[in-house]
């Protein structure tokens, strides 16, 4: 057991893959994460196989692709009954396991292999909508009311959980949910069983809206010049429906000042998280475990934040589907420090990677792969592409990418897009109508048709794609999943 390192998995909700200072973002400041990447390995072509909260977390937890864990879109209230999980395997191997923050399991108190979870999943739409006792499903809520009184609501600033409207946090910074996640994580360090290595999943709700950073962080970005988001020559620039007038919109045109403020709020939440990670890193040092602790930083999905006049997630574009993925491990793991592998990795790779770090056998059910060989620079072979999807009515979509090209297929009507990510990383130019790209388009159609062969929706016969099939957010075979639109 003494040879097994401690493991800290840090995830954020809705953090774009390009939003790290070390990756060259022109505005975002993330000094602590930049140092983690400098000391470790920054995977610059990391993707989520289903860009929304629940399905993405199922991939992290199980090491499975959406078609195997059964969640192919967003649908709350469906039981989590997975037998083989990342914390469960580590607990069985002798780790003390703890989850803090956003898990998004259902029922909320499901341990899913952890010894303990301390929860704050965000606004708790499902619990509030069905008038459950959401106090019992959220430890942050109870803690905040204990500190400030029963009348306090962490949403008291008036911002919705999916809004692009930004304003400063309305309470003292120490009461912000980002600070709370770190406070409870530090408490775990102090109370853990020191006879065992530990696994801590520290999961932040932000930078997911509400865009409510502490005032000092918002002021930092409001005083800077912020480049406008990219808008492709294929994007809707008219917004005939005036969808942008909805503060909770998924698409549309909003005023330039409001958009700039939204971007400032989003970036401010990131820097706030980064500074709190720095606070936690100091605590790990004080705990005495820093020298033999592995860290992995990732996100469940990104945020369009005005790219192509779209917001939020669920779409196959880089702002939504690409995520950060930074691994740092003790020196004995011999990582190629400071390297940036361009191989396409995915969230299902987190479980086998961390089990590999722990020296624990990877279960046969796991479909992801350990990225340790890539991180060491010793891997001769790797998957050729990743496949992602999201059931979303008329916008239900699939994508396949090798990190250099991306093919997108909208299953409802068969619409296609093709992007050259090397020459056009912001996906400004759709090449699907370019006759010179026809062989590449045909290649990716075949790749996706093979990926979708045998699916219950009937998307493919194994050789060709079949449009117009109804997409479901939860596969029918998953308990509670029948009829999930």
Describe this structure in words.
The chain has helices spanning 31-39, 53-62, 66-69, 86-92, 125-129, 139-148, 177-191, 215-222, 256-287, 318-321, 350-358, 372-376, 438-451, and strands at 6-13, 41-42, 46-47, 96-101, 116-119, 198-207, 293-299, 322-323, 325-328, 345-346, 386-390, 397-401, 405-410, 416-420. The chain is α/β, with parallel strands linked by helices and 485 residues long. It has one domain (6-383): Alkaline Phosphatase, subunit A. The strands form 3 sheets. A 7-stranded mixed sheet has the order 2-9-7-1-6-4-5, with helices on both faces. A 4-stranded antiparallel sheet has the order 11-12-13-14, covered by helices on one side. A 3-stranded mixed sheet has the order 8-3-10. Strand 13 and strand 14 (416-420) form a beta hairpin. The radius of gyration is 21 Å and the shape is globular. It starts with 5 loop residues before the first strand and ends in a 34-residue tail after the last helix. 50% of the residues are buried. The mean pLDDT is 95.
- Supply the helix-strand structural class: alpha/beta
Low-confidence segments, ≥5 residues, pLDDT <50?
Answer: none
Stated plainly, the CATH topology is called Alkaline Phosphatase, subunit A
N-end to C-end Cα span: 46 Å
CATH homology superfamily name: Alkaline Phosphatase, subunit A
SSE ordering: EHEEHHHEEHHHEHHEHEEEHHEEEEH
Q: Beta fraction of the residues? A: 5-15%
Global morphology = globular
How many strand units? 14
Give a short account of the largest sheet: 7 strands, mixed
- Rg is 21 Å
Give me the CATH architecture, please. 3-Layer(aba) Sandwich
Number of helical segments with 4 or more residues: 13
| Number of structural units classed as domains | 1
- Biggest sheet strand order reads 2-9-7-1-6-4-5
Output the CATH class name. Answer: Alpha Beta
Helix content: 25-40%
The mean pLDDT is: 95
């Amino acid at each position: 057991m003494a040879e097994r390192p401690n493991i800290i998995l840090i995830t954020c909700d809705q953090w774009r893959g390009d939003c790290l200072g070390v990756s060259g973002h022109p505005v975002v400041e993330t000094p602590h994460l930049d140092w983690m990447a400098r000391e470790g390995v920054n995977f610059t072509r990391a993707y989520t196989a289903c860009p929304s909260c629940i399905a993405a977390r199922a991939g992290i937890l199980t090491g499975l692709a959406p078609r195997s864990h059964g969640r192919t879109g967003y649908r709350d209230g469906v039981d989590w009954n997975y037998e083989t999980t990342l914390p469960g395997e580590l607990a069985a191997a002798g780790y003390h396991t703890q989850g803090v923050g956003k898990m998004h399991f259902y029922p909320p108190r499901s341990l899913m292999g952890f010894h303990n979870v301390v929860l704050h999943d965000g606004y708790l739409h499902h619990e509030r909508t069905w008038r459950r006792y959401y106090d019992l499903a959220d430890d942050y809520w109870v803690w905040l009311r204990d500190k400030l009184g029963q009348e306090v609501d962490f949403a008291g600033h008036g911002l919705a959980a999916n809004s692009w409207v930004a304003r400063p946090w309305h309470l003292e910074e120490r009461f912000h949910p980002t600070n709370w996640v770190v406070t409870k994580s530090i408490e775990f360090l102090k109370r853990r069983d020191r006879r065992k290595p530990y696994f801590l999943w520290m999961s932040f709700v932000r930078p997911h809206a509400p865009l409510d950073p502490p005032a000092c962080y918002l002021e930092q970005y409001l005083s800077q010049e912020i480049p406008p988001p990219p808008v492709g020559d294929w994007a809707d620039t008219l917004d005939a429906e005036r969808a942008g007038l909805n503060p909770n919109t998924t698409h549309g045109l909003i005023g330039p000042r409001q958009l700039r403020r939204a971007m400032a709020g989003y970036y401010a939440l990131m820097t706030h998280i980064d500074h709190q990670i720095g606070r936690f890193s100091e605590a790990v040092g004080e705990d005495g475990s820093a020298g033999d602790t592995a860290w992995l930083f990732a996100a469940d999905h990104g945020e369009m934040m005005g790219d192509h006049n779209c917001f939020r997630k669920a779409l196959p574009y880089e702002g939504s589907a690409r995520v950060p993925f930074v691994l740092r491990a003790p020196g004995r793991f011999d990582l190629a420090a400071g390297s940036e592998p361009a191989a396409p990795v995915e969230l299902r790779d987190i479980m086998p990677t961390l089990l590999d770090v722990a020296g624990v056998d990877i279960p046969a059910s796991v479909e992801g792969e350990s990225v340790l060989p890539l991180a060491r620079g010793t891997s001769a072979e790797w998957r050729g592409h990743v496949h992602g999807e999201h059931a979303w009515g008329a916008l239900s979509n699939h994508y396949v990418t090798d990190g250099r090209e991306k093919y997108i297929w909208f299953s409802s009507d068969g619409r296609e897009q093709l992007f050259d990510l090397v020459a056009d990383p912001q996906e400004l130019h759709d090449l699907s109508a370019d006759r010179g790209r026809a062989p590449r388009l045909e290649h990716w159609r075949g790749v996706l048709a093979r990926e979708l062969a045998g699916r219950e929706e009937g998307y493919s016969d194994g050789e060709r794609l079949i449009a117009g099939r109804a997409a479901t957010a939860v596969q029918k075979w998953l308990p509670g999943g029948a009829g999930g639109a």
